[in-house]
């Protein structure tokens, strides 16, 4: 397995293509403006997309997911507890809803990227995993056309936030952490669906138990690794 990465213009959200040796791939978090870049990668590298995955349902990570999934003729996968967000990506953002505050940061970033705020159309094919409610789910092995990814439920930023663990040969797995874990920080918990108690449990029971050698690619900002974050991130347990 290896990764190809592009950065969307809206909030510099990271989008990754997890690629198997035979060219099969899954696309993770195609935010606004990432779709065309992903299509260019697919063509340039002769990739065979199998699915679009999202780490959580916020619009800066999902905006291009429906159109990209339709273009590639693949489903969109995400945790069941965030699936409702795909029907109304703005209405589930509370204070960041650009329809309520056209001067807000998300609205400004979307408009600057050339996005029509009224152009959203939900995905045609959504395949939720996990359970719709209740406690944190156990790990789920996703085998998508030969691309193997472990989905680890990590609620707190949203109810369905998920870490994706990608095989990295003989090394510890690569972690696509979405907005759960950043270099030196964590995702906010004050938006609808956020939960500081759930986030604290996720940090103690999920993030802190990841293999120390794992490299982490957050949804925004620089890459890091688990050992560094455990040693220096003020939000993680010591």
CA radius of gyration: 17 Å
The sequence of SSEs as H and E is EEEHEHHEHEEEEEEEHEEH
Name the shape in a single word.
globular
Largest sheet composition: 6 strands, mixed
At CATH level 2, the architecture is: 4-Layer Sandwich
Distance between the termini: 32 Å
Query: Can you tell me the residue ranges where pLDDT is under 50 for at least 5 consecutive residues?
Result: none
Number of domains: 1
DSSP, total strands: 14
What is the residue-mean pLDDT, rounded to a whole number? Answer: 92
Strand content: 25-35%
User: How many helical stretches?
Assistant: 6
Structural class: alpha/beta
What is the CATH class? Alpha Beta
Q: What is the percent of helical residues?
A: 10-25%
Provide the CATH superfamily: Ribonuclease Z/Hydroxyacylglutathione hydrolase-like
CATH topology: Metallo-beta-lactamase, Chain A
Order of strands across the biggest sheet? 1-2-3-4-5-6
Pfam families: Lactamase_B (PF00753)
GO molecular function: hydrolase activity; metal ion binding
Protein name: Beta-lactamase domain protein
Organism: Cellulomonas flavigena (strain ATCC 482 / DSM 20109 / BCRC 11376 / JCM 18109 / NBRC 3775 / NCIMB 8073 / NRS 134)
């Amino acid at each position: 397995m290896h990764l190809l990465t592009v950065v969307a213009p809206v909030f510099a959200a990271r989008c990754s293509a997890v690629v198997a040796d035979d060219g099969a791939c899954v696309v993770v978090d195609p935010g606004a403006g990432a779709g065309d870049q992903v299509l260019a990668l697919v063509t340039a590298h002769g990739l065979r997309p199998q699915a679009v995955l999202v780490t959580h349902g916020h619009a800066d990570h999902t905006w291009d997911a429906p159109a990209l999934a339709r273009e590639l003729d693949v489903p969109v996968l995400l945790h069941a507890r965030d699936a409702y967000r795909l029907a109304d990506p703005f209405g589930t953002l509370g204070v960041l809803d650009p329809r309520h505050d056209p001067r807000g940061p998300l609205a400004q970033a979307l408009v600057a990227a050339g996005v029509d705020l009224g152009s959203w159309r939900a995905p045609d094919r959504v395949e939720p995993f996990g359970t719709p409610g209740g406690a944190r789910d156990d790990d789920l092995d996703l085998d998508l056309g030969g691309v193997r990814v472990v989905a680890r439920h990590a609620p707190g930023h949203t109810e369905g936030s998920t870490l994706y663990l990608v095989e990295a040969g003989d090394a510890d797995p690569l972690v696509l952490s979405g907005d759960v874990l950043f270099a030196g920080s964590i995702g906010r918990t004050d938006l609808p669906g956020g939960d500081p108690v759930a986030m604290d449990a996720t940090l103690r029971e999920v993030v802190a138990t990841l293999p120390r050698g794992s490299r982490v690619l957050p949804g925004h900002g620089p890459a890091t690794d688990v050992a560094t974050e455990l040693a220096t991130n003020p939000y993680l347990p010591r």
